[in-house]
Amino acid sequence: MKKIILYTASLLVFMACDTSIKPIQYGRDQCDYCSMGIVQKTHSAQLVTSKGKQRKFDAIECMVNYIEKDSQSLKDANLWVANYTAPGQMIPAKEASYLISKNLPSPMGAYLTAFKNEADALKTKKQLEGSIHHWGELPEAIKKDVYSK
């Protein structure tokens, strides 16, 4: 009986700290930053804390702003963004390339879109103009390119 209790407790602890990404329920889930419904598979984002807490966002800029408010406790979080060229596919945020283009709107108005690689971002930039960025540059780039105008 003790083994069953120990096994069950261990399983519950393991499940509680599951840091894998869970699918976004488009049309049902709400953004953890702005509370809007998450409907666009091309601009969504997700954060999973080291304790397994899921945070979902309707736009990449919402996740960036959410992290800015609490960057210290979220420094070890797994960050994911939607790949614009494969809607619904989530890619690691820190490895993605980003395009800020006034010709490609995002849900919250930062015109911020993620791509799996820089070649895809450059290809879209060539068609729609804009500026290419990497993860660490986003907070300042959003403020400079969008909110300052």
Structural descriptors:
single chain; 149 residues; alpha+beta; four-stranded antiparallel sheet; three-stranded antiparallel sheet; 4 helices; 7 strands; 19% strand
What does this structure look like?
The chain has 149 residues and is an alpha+beta fold. The protein has one domain (24-147). Helices cover 31% and strands 19% of the residues. It has 4 helices and 7 strands. The protein has helices spanning 2-16, 60-69, 118-128, 138-147, and strands spanning 45-48, 54-57, 78-82, 90-92, 97-100, 112-115, 131-134. A 4-stranded antiparallel beta sheet has the order 2-1-3-4. Strands 6-5-7 form a 3-stranded antiparallel beta sheet, with helices on both faces. The longest helix has 15 residues, at 2-16. It is globular. The N and C termini lie far apart (66 Å). The mean pLDDT is 89.
Summarize it.
With 149 residues, the chain is an alpha+beta fold. The chain is built from four helices and seven strands.
Layout of strands and helices, then pairs:
Elements: H1 2-16, E1 45-48, E2 54-57, H2 60-69, E3 78-82, E4 90-92, E5 97-100, E6 112-115, H3 118-128, E7 131-134, H4 138-147
> Helix share of residues?
25-40%
Distance between the termini: 66 Å
Approximately how much beta-strand content do the residues carry? 15-25%
- SSE string, helices as H and strands as E: HEEHEEEEHEH
Main sheet strand line-up: 2-1-3-4
Number of domains: 1
Number of helices: 4
Evaluate the radius of gyration: 17 Å
Major sheet: size, sense and barrel closure?
A: 4 strands, antiparallel
What structural category arises from helix and sheet content? alpha+beta
Indicate the overall shape: globular
Low-confidence stretches: none
Number of strands: 7
